[in-house]
Amino acid sequence: GKNLEISPVAVPLPQAxxxxxxxxxxLKNQSGKELCDPYTTIKYTKRYEEFQAKTVDDFEDxxxxxxxxxxTAADCPLSLRQIVRIPGAKEVMITFFCxxxxxxxxxxxxxxxLVLQWGIASETAAGFASLFYIGITxxxxxxxxxxxxxxxxxxxxxxxxxxSGGLVLLFLPxxxxxxxxxxxxIGLGCAPVYPSIIHSTPEHFGAKRSQAMIGVxxxxxxxxxxxxxxxxxxxxxxIGVFCFPFYLLVILVLMAVxxxxxxxxxxxxxxxxxx
Length: 275
What we know:
This protein is mainly alpha-helical and 275 residues long.
């Protein structure tokens, strides 16, 4: 139109132009009132959106990557020393160790505990002990539906809470009356922990390091499975089988503490804080 006027406007920048940016312009009068709709560049908007959609694993250097000293080259497999140096690795290994120690110790020693501590017939005690594995089986099936509403962290915390409830029942001095539901509850609590830890690995450590992390988690699981039941056998032989629920409680507390520390490490890493 007749009142149309085009004139260049120079905008000084305090530093070099960044790689990703969006130009947004709007015409204002002397009082600061906007006289037109804001204009945003289309060319750089797309690049900016692509940048926003990226995750830490899409960058060569960033808070989600381990430094060169720890060896994070995509084409170079990580050694055990390098894996252990990844923030949160030790915590998740101990968490997995404790879970598998708790599950295996409960499954192997529950019947002996019922027989030696409460004088329950061996046939009845064996049937009670099998309820622990029934609890795991039923719990795994129910966990599949619960994952529609709960995330991995919530599932693990739920499992730890159920295990705690089962241990409380084992502590009560009412013999098989509380031992039966206690073992079932421990089995239900164990159900979501194992798959949730595995499923949350990419979230905590990134997709490119998941394979290595799951490998060491499995190694920790087998160590806990093989080591901790015999350790309880030694304790039961020298102290008494009555310490069975105390032993499980110590393992459970350590598992919960290490899992919470893992979550803290993961949150700090996502924020880009070096630790």
